[in-house]
Design brief:
With 107 residues, the chain is an all-alpha fold. Helices cover 71% and strands 0% of the residues. It has one domain.
């Protein structure tokens, strides 16, 4: 299973470093560390966090591509990310984001 440390390991190719940083930033955003890199409103921070959680939860094609570019198994990254998100926010957050997404898809 992928670990947070794998996202920070020493990659040899600059492209791997870039895409590992994308994964790492998305994980920080999903875990609620959005405000650490800029001044955002609470609504903006929630939106960024929700979008990052959705990215890990629903694994769009871009997620698979980023994991491939870094050289990590996307299923392992997803499992690790969802575990860390649950630990930082609690299960109810992931379920509420999922419910909002289903609601958005209907309306």
């Amino acid at each position: 299973m992928a670990t947070a440390m794998e996202l920070q390991k020493d990659y040899h190719l600059p492209e791997q470093k870039l895409w590992a940083a994308v994964l790492h930033r998305a994980l920080l955003d999903a875990c609620g560390s959005v405000g650490k890199c800029g001044s955002y409103t609470r609504k903006q921070m929630n939106r960024i966090s929700d979008d990052a959680i959705k990215w890990f939860t629903y694994k769009p094609e871009g997620f698979q591509t980023v994991c491939d570019l870094v050289g990590l198994d996307s299923d392992a990254v997803r499992q690790m990310a969802l575990r860390l998100i649950r630990e930082s926010h609690g299960k109810c957050l992931i379920h509420s984001v999922s419910a909002r997404r289903r609601s958005d898809m209907r309306g």
